[in-house]
């Protein structure tokens, strides 16, 4: 809260047995979750059967697995997400919302769209603490059909209330 700054400035040298404490939780429910890909490999066979997609996968004993490799940054081709590429299916799913005990607003949602040649997913966490800060975690996932990769981009943005006010 905004008033916590006043308490942080107090002289603690006169307090007997005072110990600085490191918070172990975040009351704003902030989460830098980027999405989980490792469980996708458990469903390779089912995905191939239901979609008729030809997915390369490794047979590792009893389990079918896809190989996931981190590669250098590449930009999502936003031109493929333009109005000229019609959306076949879309949805928005709210994961949670909170008014933070009347001290702001926190919300996490997933939006996705499927086009004829690609899909795009946006996982967003938005936080506004009244008179303190605004924080956004965005995870964007993009895949163009026929390519052998799924692009994931993560962004973290935060600014204090004073900076935004200026």
3D structure, described in words:
This protein has 166 residues and is mainly beta. It has two domains: 32-70, no CATH class; 77-166. Helices cover 11% and strands 39% of the residues. It has helices at 4-8, 44-51, 161-165; strands at 58-60, 63-65, 87-98, 104-115, 118-129, 133-144, 151-160. Strands 3-4-5-6-7 form a five-stranded antiparallel beta sheet. The longest helix is centred in the N-terminal third of the chain and has 8 residues, at 44-51. The model has no long low-confidence stretch (mean pLDDT 79).
Concise summary:
It is built from three helices and seven strands. By secondary structure, it is mainly beta.
Task: Annotate the secondary structure layout.
Layout lengths: L3 H5 L35 H8 L6 E3 L2 E3 L21 E12 L5 E12 L2 E12 L3 E12 L6 E10 H5 L1
Antiparallel strand pairs: 1-2, 3-4, 4-5, 5-6, 6-7
């Amino acid at each position: 809260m905004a008033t916590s700054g006043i308490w942080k400035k107090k002289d603690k040298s006169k307090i007997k047995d005072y110990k600085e404490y490191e918070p172990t939780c975040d009351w704003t429910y902030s989460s830098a979750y980027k999405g989980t890909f490792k469980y996708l490999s458990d469903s390779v066979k089912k995905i191939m059967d239901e979609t008729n997609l030809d997915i390369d996968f490794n047979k590792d004993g009893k389990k079918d697995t896809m190989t996931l490799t981190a590669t250098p940054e590449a930009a999502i081709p936003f031109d493929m997400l333009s109005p000229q590429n019609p959306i076949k299916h879309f949805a928005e799913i709210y994961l949670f919302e909170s008014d933070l005990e009347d001290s702001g607003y926190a919300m996490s949602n997933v939006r996705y769209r499927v086009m004829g040649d690609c899909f795009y997913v946006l996982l967003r966490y938005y936080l506004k603490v009244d008179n303190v800060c605004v924080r956004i975690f965005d995870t964007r996932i993009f895949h163009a059909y026929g390519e052998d990769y799924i692009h994931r981009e993560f962004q973290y943005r935060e600014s204090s209330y004073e900076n935004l006010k200026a």
